[in-house]
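Notes from the 1:1 (GR / supervisor)

We went over the backlog. Supervisor wanted to see one worked example end to end before approving the batch request, so GR pasted a single chain during the call. The sequence is below; no edits were made to it. Supervisor asked that the structure be written out right there so they could see what the output format looks like.
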Amino acid sequence: MTGCISTETESKKSQVWGLDLMIAMTIFLVGLVAFYFYAINFSSEAEENLDMMFYDGNSIASILVSEGSPLDWSQENVVSPGLTSKSTINNTKLERFYSLASSDYNRTKSILKTRFDFYVYFDEMMNVSIMIDGIGKPGVNRTSIADAENPQNLVRIERFTVYMNKPTKMSLYLWQ
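Structure output shown during the call:
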């Protein structure tokens, strides 16, 4: 009779242990499936975000190396802030764009149709009536873009243009 009780108790313990194992396996599998879906969605989301940044960057760079709209735009009537006239950088438009971005950065982002922060500069900036290191987010300069902002994503777009009758490189940075 004693042997019968011990077998019954061991049987109940093994049933409880089996139930614990099933619950643990279920929790593990749910966690594994959740991680799998998160990993798949996260990588595609990051890729979509970078694609959007490159699209916006190329669009902004194209706008800036165009003549703009209207051709002789000002802060009040700007639709598209192009910086060139006859395929060369126009100092007046450059100064207007600098003033626009300095006075109302969020409006400038809206005009450029981007939700990302930006900073643009030219390698050869000279003979401008005001000292311009670059144009974009206040408090950022060409050496502090990556350090000061610590961006989650950072994209650089480059275009070659003519400034003061010399070829120069325009660098545009976009970040989150």
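Supervisor's comment: The mean pLDDT is 84.
Batch request approved.
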